[in-house]
Amino acid sequence: MSDVILNLDFTRGPGPRQRTGHSLKHRRFLQRRAYLERKGYLHRKQAKPVNSHNSVTHSGLGHRPQPKLTPQPCLKTPTPGQKPTHPSERSLLLSECQSGFLSFQRNSGGSHKGSSSFSSSSSSTTSLSAPRPSSLAKPYKCVALDCEMVGTGQGGKKSELARCSVIGYDGDLVYDKYILPPNPITDYRTRWSGIRRQHMKNATPFKLAQKEILKVLYGKIVIGHAVHNDFKALNYFHPQSLTRDTSKIPLLNRKAGFPEKESVSLKKLTKQLLHRDIQVGKKGHSSVEDARATMELYKLVEAQLESEGATQTEEK
Question: pTM, whole model, 2 decimals?
Fold first, then answer.
Protein backbone atom coordinates (compact mmCIF):
# COMPACT_ATOMS: atom_id res chain seq x y z
CA MET A 1 0.00 0.00 0.00
CA SER A 2 1.56 3.28 -1.12
CA ASP A 3 1.90 6.31 1.20
CA VAL A 4 -0.26 9.38 0.56
CA ILE A 5 1.40 12.79 1.07
CA LEU A 6 -0.79 15.85 1.59
CA ASN A 7 0.66 19.29 0.93
CA LEU A 8 -1.36 21.97 2.83
CA ASP A 9 -0.62 25.73 2.70
CA PHE A 10 -1.45 27.58 5.95
CA THR A 11 0.42 30.79 5.11
CA ARG A 12 -2.68 32.74 4.14
CA GLY A 13 -5.23 33.19 6.89
CA PRO A 14 -8.74 34.52 6.76
CA GLY A 15 -8.95 38.17 5.79
CA PRO A 16 -10.04 40.90 8.21
CA ARG A 17 -13.70 41.39 8.85
CA GLN A 18 -15.20 44.07 6.70
CA ARG A 19 -17.25 46.71 8.42
CA THR A 20 -20.86 46.48 7.54
CA GLY A 21 -21.51 50.10 8.41
CA HIS A 22 -21.13 52.91 10.94
CA SER A 23 -22.38 52.63 14.51
CA LEU A 24 -25.76 54.08 15.43
CA LYS A 25 -24.15 56.70 17.67
CA HIS A 26 -21.89 57.90 14.86
CA ARG A 27 -24.75 58.08 12.36
CA ARG A 28 -26.77 60.20 14.82
CA PHE A 29 -23.81 62.51 15.28
CA LEU A 30 -23.46 62.97 11.50
CA GLN A 31 -27.18 63.72 11.24
CA ARG A 32 -26.97 66.36 13.99
CA ARG A 33 -23.93 67.94 12.41
CA ALA A 34 -25.59 68.09 9.00
CA TYR A 35 -28.65 69.70 10.56
CA LEU A 36 -26.53 72.35 12.33
CA GLU A 37 -24.68 73.08 9.08
CA ARG A 38 -27.97 73.58 7.24
CA LYS A 39 -29.17 75.99 9.94
CA GLY A 40 -25.92 77.93 9.74
CA TYR A 41 -24.74 77.31 13.33
CA LEU A 42 -21.68 75.35 12.22
CA HIS A 43 -19.34 76.09 9.34
CA ARG A 44 -19.61 73.48 6.63
CA LYS A 45 -16.48 71.36 6.64
CA GLN A 46 -14.73 71.21 3.30
CA ALA A 47 -14.34 67.71 1.89
CA LYS A 48 -10.76 66.63 1.29
CA PRO A 49 -9.86 64.78 -1.93
CA VAL A 50 -9.61 61.07 -1.35
CA ASN A 51 -6.35 59.46 -2.35
CA SER A 52 -7.04 56.25 -4.18
CA HIS A 53 -3.77 54.72 -2.97
CA ASN A 54 -4.67 55.24 0.68
CA SER A 55 -8.12 53.78 0.24
CA VAL A 56 -6.72 50.29 -0.37
CA THR A 57 -5.45 48.44 2.65
CA HIS A 58 -2.54 46.06 2.72
CA SER A 59 -4.92 43.14 2.65
CA GLY A 60 -6.21 44.31 -0.69
CA LEU A 61 -9.75 45.11 0.50
CA GLY A 62 -11.33 48.39 -0.43
CA HIS A 63 -11.86 49.61 3.15
CA ARG A 64 -11.50 53.34 3.75
CA PRO A 65 -10.54 54.38 7.32
CA GLN A 66 -13.05 56.75 8.87
CA PRO A 67 -11.68 60.27 9.51
CA LYS A 68 -11.94 61.55 13.11
CA LEU A 69 -14.47 64.35 13.30
CA THR A 70 -14.14 66.88 16.14
CA PRO A 71 -17.23 69.06 16.70
CA GLN A 72 -16.37 72.77 16.73
CA PRO A 73 -19.20 74.93 18.06
CA CYS A 74 -18.51 77.99 15.90
CA LEU A 75 -21.43 80.41 15.96
CA LYS A 76 -22.17 82.07 12.67
CA THR A 77 -22.64 85.82 12.76
CA PRO A 78 -26.06 86.70 11.35
CA THR A 79 -25.99 88.65 8.15
CA PRO A 80 -27.75 92.05 7.90
CA GLY A 81 -31.49 91.58 7.67
CA GLN A 82 -31.34 88.07 9.06
CA LYS A 83 -33.40 87.46 12.19
CA PRO A 84 -31.15 86.48 15.12
CA THR A 85 -31.83 83.15 16.71
CA HIS A 86 -33.41 83.10 20.17
CA PRO A 87 -30.83 82.20 22.89
CA SER A 88 -32.89 79.27 24.13
CA GLU A 89 -33.07 77.74 20.64
CA ARG A 90 -29.36 78.27 20.10
CA SER A 91 -28.45 76.64 23.41
CA LEU A 92 -30.74 73.72 22.60
CA LEU A 93 -29.16 73.13 19.21
CA LEU A 94 -25.58 73.36 20.50
CA SER A 95 -26.11 71.44 23.72
CA GLU A 96 -24.40 68.30 22.46
CA CYS A 97 -21.25 70.09 21.29
CA GLN A 98 -21.00 72.47 24.25
CA SER A 99 -21.47 69.72 26.82
CA GLY A 100 -18.37 68.00 25.53
CA PHE A 101 -16.27 71.16 25.75
CA LEU A 102 -17.49 72.00 29.29
CA SER A 103 -16.60 68.56 30.60
CA PHE A 104 -13.15 68.90 29.11
CA GLN A 105 -12.69 72.34 30.70
CA ARG A 106 -13.68 71.05 34.15
CA ASN A 107 -11.18 68.20 33.93
CA SER A 108 -8.37 70.35 32.53
CA GLY A 109 -7.71 72.07 35.87
CA GLY A 110 -8.63 75.58 34.73
CA SER A 111 -5.99 75.83 31.98
CA HIS A 112 -8.51 77.37 29.54
CA LYS A 113 -10.42 80.59 29.85
CA GLY A 114 -13.71 78.76 29.52
CA SER A 115 -13.07 76.72 32.66
CA SER A 116 -12.29 79.81 34.74
CA SER A 117 -15.48 81.53 33.60
CA PHE A 118 -17.50 78.44 34.40
CA SER A 119 -16.10 78.17 37.92
CA SER A 120 -16.60 81.88 38.59
CA SER A 121 -20.23 81.75 37.50
CA SER A 122 -20.96 78.76 39.73
CA SER A 123 -19.28 80.39 42.74
CA SER A 124 -21.19 83.63 42.22
CA THR A 125 -24.47 81.72 42.19
CA THR A 126 -23.57 80.07 45.49
CA SER A 127 -22.67 83.37 47.14
CA LEU A 128 -25.93 84.96 46.01
CA SER A 129 -28.05 82.07 47.27
CA ALA A 130 -26.43 82.09 50.72
CA PRO A 131 -27.84 84.97 52.87
CA ARG A 132 -25.28 87.05 54.72
CA PRO A 133 -25.88 88.44 58.26
CA SER A 134 -24.91 91.94 57.09
CA SER A 135 -27.88 91.96 54.68
CA LEU A 136 -30.39 91.58 57.54
CA ALA A 137 -32.32 94.76 58.29
CA LYS A 138 -31.55 96.31 61.71
CA PRO A 139 -33.84 99.32 62.14
CA TYR A 140 -32.98 99.80 65.84
CA LYS A 141 -29.53 100.36 67.31
CA CYS A 142 -30.74 99.63 70.85
CA VAL A 143 -33.97 98.44 72.48
CA ALA A 144 -35.40 98.34 76.00
CA LEU A 145 -36.67 95.05 77.39
CA ASP A 146 -39.06 94.31 80.24
CA CYS A 147 -40.78 91.04 81.18
CA GLU A 148 -43.54 90.03 83.56
CA MET A 149 -43.47 86.66 85.29
CA VAL A 150 -45.99 84.29 86.86
CA GLY A 151 -45.46 81.46 89.35
CA THR A 152 -45.46 77.78 88.41
CA GLY A 153 -44.84 74.59 90.32
CA GLN A 154 -45.67 73.92 93.94
CA GLY A 155 -46.65 77.13 95.68
CA GLY A 156 -45.90 79.18 92.54
CA LYS A 157 -42.29 79.65 93.62
CA LYS A 158 -40.80 79.13 90.15
CA SER A 159 -40.89 82.26 87.96
CA GLU A 160 -41.74 81.81 84.29
CA LEU A 161 -42.30 84.27 81.47
CA ALA A 162 -45.89 85.44 80.87
CA ARG A 163 -45.45 88.77 79.03
CA CYS A 164 -42.60 90.44 77.17
CA SER A 165 -42.37 93.98 75.82
CA VAL A 166 -39.63 95.52 73.68
CA ILE A 167 -39.43 99.29 73.08
CA GLY A 168 -37.41 101.09 70.41
CA TYR A 169 -35.05 104.00 70.96
CA ASP A 170 -37.76 106.59 70.29
CA GLY A 171 -40.30 104.87 72.55
CA ASP A 172 -42.17 103.04 69.79
CA LEU A 173 -43.52 99.56 70.53
CA VAL A 174 -41.48 96.84 68.81
CA TYR A 175 -42.83 93.70 70.51
CA ASP A 176 -45.54 93.04 73.13
CA LYS A 177 -47.17 89.64 73.64
CA TYR A 178 -48.63 87.50 76.37
CA ILE A 179 -46.74 84.22 76.60
CA LEU A 180 -47.98 80.83 77.77
CA PRO A 181 -45.41 79.14 80.05
CA PRO A 182 -44.49 75.48 79.44
CA ASN A 183 -45.71 74.50 82.94
CA PRO A 184 -49.17 75.08 84.46
CA ILE A 185 -49.55 78.43 86.23
CA THR A 186 -50.19 78.13 89.96
CA ASP A 187 -49.82 81.83 90.87
CA TYR A 188 -50.61 84.67 88.46
CA ARG A 189 -49.01 87.30 90.74
CA THR A 190 -51.51 89.79 89.39
CA ARG A 191 -50.64 92.44 92.00
CA TRP A 192 -47.17 92.80 90.46
CA SER A 193 -47.35 91.18 87.01
CA GLY A 194 -50.78 92.40 85.92
CA ILE A 195 -51.38 88.95 84.40
CA ARG A 196 -54.83 87.38 84.62
CA ARG A 197 -56.32 84.09 83.54
CA GLN A 198 -58.01 85.56 80.44
CA HIS A 199 -54.66 86.79 79.12
CA MET A 200 -53.53 83.18 78.67
CA LYS A 201 -56.41 82.12 76.38
CA ASN A 202 -54.74 83.34 73.17
CA ALA A 203 -51.19 83.58 74.52
CA THR A 204 -48.20 82.66 72.36
CA PRO A 205 -46.43 79.40 73.33
CA PHE A 206 -43.10 79.98 75.05
CA LYS A 207 -40.90 78.31 72.39
CA LEU A 208 -42.37 80.38 69.57
CA ALA A 209 -42.23 83.61 71.57
CA GLN A 210 -38.62 82.91 72.55
CA LYS A 211 -37.59 82.66 68.88
CA GLU A 212 -39.41 85.89 68.02
CA ILE A 213 -37.88 87.84 70.92
CA LEU A 214 -34.31 86.64 70.38
CA LYS A 215 -34.59 87.60 66.72
CA VAL A 216 -35.46 91.15 67.82
CA LEU A 217 -32.62 91.34 70.37
CA TYR A 218 -29.92 89.91 68.12
CA GLY A 219 -27.01 92.30 67.54
CA LYS A 220 -28.55 95.21 69.47
CA ILE A 221 -27.80 97.01 72.72
CA VAL A 222 -30.41 95.74 75.20
CA ILE A 223 -31.42 98.06 78.05
CA GLY A 224 -33.31 96.88 81.10
CA HIS A 225 -33.67 97.31 84.85
CA ALA A 226 -32.24 94.24 86.62
CA VAL A 227 -32.26 92.81 83.10
CA HIS A 228 -30.55 89.59 84.16
CA ASN A 229 -33.94 88.44 85.52
CA ASP A 230 -35.51 88.99 82.10
CA PHE A 231 -32.75 87.03 80.36
CA LYS A 232 -33.18 84.22 82.86
CA ALA A 233 -36.91 84.02 82.10
CA LEU A 234 -36.04 83.84 78.39
CA ASN A 235 -33.37 81.15 78.95
CA TYR A 236 -30.97 83.46 77.17
CA PHE A 237 -27.56 85.11 77.73
CA HIS A 238 -27.02 88.41 75.91
CA PRO A 239 -23.42 89.62 75.35
CA GLN A 240 -22.29 91.74 78.27
CA SER A 241 -20.79 94.34 75.93
CA LEU A 242 -24.28 94.92 74.48
CA THR A 243 -26.14 95.01 77.81
CA ARG A 244 -27.04 98.14 79.80
CA ASP A 245 -28.60 97.63 83.24
CA THR A 246 -30.10 100.83 84.67
CA SER A 247 -30.02 99.35 88.18
CA LYS A 248 -26.21 99.27 88.00
CA ILE A 249 -25.34 102.65 86.46
CA PRO A 250 -23.66 104.94 89.03
CA LEU A 251 -24.33 108.01 86.86
CA LEU A 252 -28.09 107.56 87.26
CA ASN A 253 -27.83 107.16 91.04
CA ARG A 254 -25.63 110.26 91.24
CA LYS A 255 -28.11 112.32 89.21
CA ALA A 256 -31.01 111.09 91.36
CA GLY A 257 -29.16 111.72 94.64
CA PHE A 258 -28.76 108.07 95.64
CA PRO A 259 -25.55 106.29 96.65
CA GLU A 260 -23.68 105.09 93.57
CA LYS A 261 -23.46 101.45 94.69
CA GLU A 262 -27.08 101.20 95.81
CA SER A 263 -29.51 99.20 93.65
CA VAL A 264 -32.40 101.65 93.33
CA SER A 265 -35.81 100.51 92.07
CA LEU A 266 -37.09 101.60 88.69
CA LYS A 267 -40.05 103.30 90.32
CA LYS A 268 -37.81 105.55 92.45
CA LEU A 269 -35.45 106.45 89.61
CA THR A 270 -38.36 107.33 87.33
CA LYS A 271 -39.99 109.51 89.98
CA GLN A 272 -36.75 111.33 90.80
CA LEU A 273 -35.35 111.85 87.29
CA LEU A 274 -38.37 111.75 84.97
CA HIS A 275 -40.88 113.19 87.48
CA ARG A 276 -43.40 110.53 86.62
CA ASP A 277 -45.18 107.87 88.66
CA ILE A 278 -45.21 104.27 87.42
CA GLN A 279 -46.29 100.94 88.89
CA VAL A 280 -49.23 102.46 90.71
CA GLY A 281 -52.73 101.13 91.25
CA LYS A 282 -54.05 97.62 91.82
CA LYS A 283 -53.87 96.44 88.20
CA GLY A 284 -50.22 95.54 88.48
CA HIS A 285 -47.16 96.59 86.48
CA SER A 286 -47.16 97.24 82.76
CA SER A 287 -44.10 95.90 80.95
CA VAL A 288 -44.60 98.46 78.18
CA GLU A 289 -44.59 101.35 80.66
CA ASP A 290 -41.54 99.98 82.50
CA ALA A 291 -39.59 99.46 79.27
CA ARG A 292 -40.29 103.03 78.13
CA ALA A 293 -39.14 104.40 81.47
CA THR A 294 -35.96 102.32 81.26
CA MET A 295 -35.16 103.68 77.80
CA GLU A 296 -35.71 107.30 78.92
CA LEU A 297 -33.40 106.80 81.92
CA TYR A 298 -30.70 105.37 79.69
CA LYS A 299 -30.93 108.30 77.27
CA LEU A 300 -30.24 110.72 80.16
CA VAL A 301 -26.72 109.33 80.59
CA GLU A 302 -26.17 107.71 77.19
CA ALA A 303 -23.54 110.13 75.84
CA GLN A 304 -21.37 110.07 78.96
CA LEU A 305 -21.87 106.36 79.58
CA GLU A 306 -20.91 105.27 76.07
CA SER A 307 -17.93 107.64 75.88
CA GLU A 308 -16.55 106.27 79.15
CA GLY A 309 -17.09 102.73 77.91
CA ALA A 310 -15.20 103.49 74.69
CA THR A 311 -12.32 105.02 76.69
CA GLN A 312 -12.05 101.95 78.93
CA THR A 313 -12.02 99.69 75.87
CA GLU A 314 -9.14 101.67 74.31
CA GLU A 315 -7.13 101.51 77.55
CA LYS A 316 -7.48 97.72 77.65
Answer: 0.56
